[in-house]
Amino acid sequence: MKLPETQVAVLEAASADDPTPVEQIAEETGEQVQAVAGAAFELEDEGLLAVTERTETEYALSEEGETYAYDGLPEHSLWVGGLSNDAVDEPIELGQAIGHGGLEDEAVEIALSNFARKGMGTIDSGTIQVDPDFDLEGDAERAILEVLRGEEGELDPGEVDEDALASLERRGLVEREESTVREVTLTDEGVTAMMEGVEVAETVGQVTPELLTSGEWEEVEFAEYNVQADAETVHGGKSHALREMSERVKDVLVGMGFEEMQGPHVDADFYINDCLFMPQDHPARNHWDRFALEEPATIGRENLPPDLVDRVEAAHRDGVGPDGEGYHSPWDEDFARALALRGHTTNLSVRHLAGLAEGDLEPPQRYFSIEKAYRNDTLDATHLLEFFQIEGWVMAEDLSVRDLMGTFTEFYEQFGITDIQFKPHYNPYTEPSFELFGRHPETGELIEIGNSGIFRPEMLEPLGVEADVMAWGLALERLFMLATGAEDIRDVHGTLVDLDFLRNEEVVY
Ligand SMILES: N[C@@H](Cc1ccccc1)C(=O)O
């Protein structure tokens, strides 16, 4: 007969005459108790083994019981203390007996009640008369405590005084513990099998079609799984940490009452710059940091709304209002029609402000976008050629710098960022303007996290907006760095990403 290894070991360790506890077999065979029990039940199914269960009761001293087992029971101490020096049958002061007996605190109470219960003498109006014939040695409670105190502290169930044991349990000196003991005995069939010879079946790691069709699977032993063994890490797909950050930002902004705006990545300079009251000779406009388009390089004249073009041109030349200044410099519509990858997402704000204004814009309004902006920067730990800008604006009557700062404080707090600083700045399209800085949690350095301000009338009037508008562009990557402690943005996106970082980065906000 072929059987799994553990079953063979159990059969060999079992006997036909004496029931053997499973624990003992485990110890002899070096198997786990669980494995031996499992094998025993399988062998029982095969009829080779009988498994019996019985409850075993064990007694042990409690902490208090242990003290009395060594120092004597309090009532015994009282009895000894109550023995008068002179005449054995004379009562003595109770206080004296307690003192002699070395009894203190709650032991006094315990001694008195048990002294009375066991009839060790009489206590009467402050005096105690011990019964000199009381047999301390013969006290069954004491005998039990002493057995349990010993090295082989096992009570022999046949010999033990049941009442005394029950009393000790009630007194909390002895604790009872019950356990189930499983024992195995070889059946006649088992004995026969052993005599005929039992072999260990080979171990199989995987079920194969052959094993199944041949029926051999019934004979073989399947290898056990070691669920604790190291396994190769499998990296499942997950959304990019920056994407998760962006989703979180969206949730926060929507929670703050903002609606999302979308718009073109490639746009006319008109929307990227001119509508923002950026002078056409502004360095950033023909600077190398702008990604111009080769084909098509411009859009047709018909693609820009003529009224808007006229109003923007007038603002550039002469400013707005009766005291308007403007730039008094030439303004060329062809220049405004040049196409480029947007260097900021403020073109979206412009388009939305202009479009909404046409539809009779009523404050308050709140809009945001989290979209890519493109700049021909020099790559370093904090700059990429493209980045995600968190653009946003609020239109309302009478906005102040306080509103702007309050909005940022509320926004960054959601990401646990409380140390933000504002630095006065200059943008052609906002007045006042502020750059925002945050402290990097790892390096402690202040890093720029955004730019903001209140749009100038020179920008808003041509768009047809009458209320105040505060606006900003924040870098998602910089927020990410502050929130996660990432030190180099190139680890996070671009061509040099650190896959390990991204795999292991749990973005917790
Ligand atoms: N466009 C600005 C951000 C900004 C938007 C709106 C108002 C003020 C500032 C930038 O890219 O830095």
TrEMBL record:
<dbReference type="GO" id="GO:0005524">
    <property type="term" value="F:ATP binding"/>
</dbReference>
<keyword id="KW-0648">Protein biosynthesis</keyword>
<dbReference type="GO" id="GO:0000287">
    <property type="term" value="F:magnesium ion binding"/>
</dbReference>
<dbReference type="GO" id="GO:0000049">
    <property type="term" value="F:tRNA binding"/>
</dbReference>
<dbReference type="InterPro" id="IPR004529">
    <property type="entry name" value="Phe-tRNA-synth_IIc_asu"/>
</dbReference>
<protein>
    <recommendedName>
        <fullName>Phenylalanine--tRNA ligase alpha subunit</fullName>
        <ecNumber>6.1.1.20</ecNumber>
    </recommendedName>
</protein>
<dbReference type="InterPro" id="IPR002319">
    <property type="entry name" value="Phenylalanyl-tRNA_Synthase"/>
</dbReference>
<feature type="binding site">
    <location>
        <position position="429"/>
    </location>
    <ligand>
        <name>L-phenylalanine</name>
    </ligand>
</feature>
<dbReference type="InterPro" id="IPR045864">
    <property type="entry name" value="aa-tRNA-synth_II/BPL/LPL"/>
</dbReference>
<dbReference type="GO" id="GO:0006432">
    <property type="term" value="P:phenylalanyl-tRNA aminoacylation"/>
</dbReference>
<dbReference type="InterPro" id="IPR022917">
    <property type="entry name" value="Phe_tRNA_ligase_alpha_bac/arc"/>
</dbReference>
<feature type="domain" description="Aminoacyl-transfer RNA synthetases class-II family profile">
    <location>
        <begin position="249"/>
        <end position="491"/>
    </location>
</feature>
<feature type="binding site">
    <location>
        <position position="455"/>
    </location>
    <ligand>
        <name>L-phenylalanine</name>
    </ligand>
</feature>
<comment type="subunit">
    <text>Tetramer of two alpha and two beta subunits.</text>
</comment>
<dbReference type="GO" id="GO:0005737">
    <property type="term" value="C:cytoplasm"/>
</dbReference>
<comment type="similarity">
    <text>Belongs to the class-II aminoacyl-tRNA synthetase family. Phe-tRNA synthetase alpha subunit type 2 subfamily.</text>
</comment>
<keyword id="KW-0460">Magnesium</keyword>
<keyword id="KW-0547">Nucleotide-binding</keyword>
<dbReference type="Pfam" id="PF01409">
    <property type="entry name" value="tRNA-synt_2d"/>
</dbReference>
<keyword id="KW-0963">Cytoplasm</keyword>
<keyword id="KW-0479">Metal-binding</keyword>
<dbReference type="InterPro" id="IPR006195">
    <property type="entry name" value="aa-tRNA-synth_II"/>
</dbReference>
<keyword id="KW-0030">Aminoacyl-tRNA synthetase</keyword>
<dbReference type="GO" id="GO:0004826">
    <property type="term" value="F:phenylalanine-tRNA ligase activity"/>
</dbReference>
<keyword id="KW-0436">Ligase</keyword>
<feature type="binding site">
    <location>
        <position position="346"/>
    </location>
    <ligand>
        <name>L-phenylalanine</name>
    </ligand>
</feature>
<feature type="binding site">
    <location>
        <begin position="389"/>
        <end position="391"/>
    </location>
    <ligand>
        <name>L-phenylalanine</name>
    </ligand>
</feature>
<keyword id="KW-0067">ATP-binding</keyword>
<dbReference type="InterPro" id="IPR036390">
    <property type="entry name" value="WH_DNA-bd_sf"/>
</dbReference>
<feature type="binding site">
    <location>
        <position position="431"/>
    </location>
    <ligand>
        <name>Mg(2+)</name>
    </ligand>
</feature>
